[in-house]
Amino acid sequence: MPDTPHGHEGRFEIAHPHRELLDQVLDKWSLSVLNELCERPCRFNDLRRAVPAVTQKSLTATLRRLERNGIVERVLLSSRPVAVEYRITPLGKTMRPPVEVLLQWAAAHMPEIERARRAFDLG
């Protein structure tokens, strides 16, 4: 499999490293967290309040995945008591335009998608 999303003869392929990255940074909680961090740096509890449906465990795992991939950075504000803040990195900021394109696509095609869903659920 090639290292790029496009294989031979216009075939669309996603290499394992790309699939792994997309799974880790475009999941349910990551998008919500990134939406908040694009606006401003946040402490953990600020993120919990901003995304109330996320559990503490899921938020911790999400932040760790985003940090591991260089999308978010964890900044120590003070050591007594320990206070940290999460910030989107310059690399993370570059994700916004392609995500916005996907959201625009979804908005433009949502009626068609909803019709397909209804047809599938009835059939």
Shape, principal axes of CA atoms = globular
The order of strands across the largest sheet is 1-2
Enumerate how many helices there are, as a single number: 6
Secondary-structure class: alpha+beta
User: What distance separates the N and C termini?
Assistant: 36 Å
Strand content: 5-15%
Helix content: 55-70%
Taking all Cα atoms into account, the compactness measure Rg is 18 Å
Number of strands: 2
Low-confidence stretches: none
* Mean pLDDT reading: 90
Sheet with the most strands, sense and barrel status: 2 strands, antiparallel
The ordered H/E elements are HHHHEEHH
Features:
123 residues, 59% helix, two-stranded antiparallel sheet, globular, 2 strands, alpha+beta
Q: What does this protein structure show overall?
A:
- The protein is of the alpha+beta class and 123 residues long.
- The chain has helices at 16-25, 28-39, 44-50, 56-68, 90-93, 96-122; strands at 72-79, 82-88.
- The chain has a two-stranded antiparallel sheet with strand order 1-2.
- The model has no long low-confidence stretch (mean pLDDT 90).
State the gist of this model.
The protein has helices at 16-25, 28-39, 44-50, 56-68, 90-93, 96-122, and strands spanning 72-79, 82-88.
Walk me through the topology:
Elements: H1 16-25, H2 28-39, H3 44-50, H4 56-68, E1 72-79, E2 82-88, H5 90-93, H6 96-122
Antiparallel strand pairs: 1-2
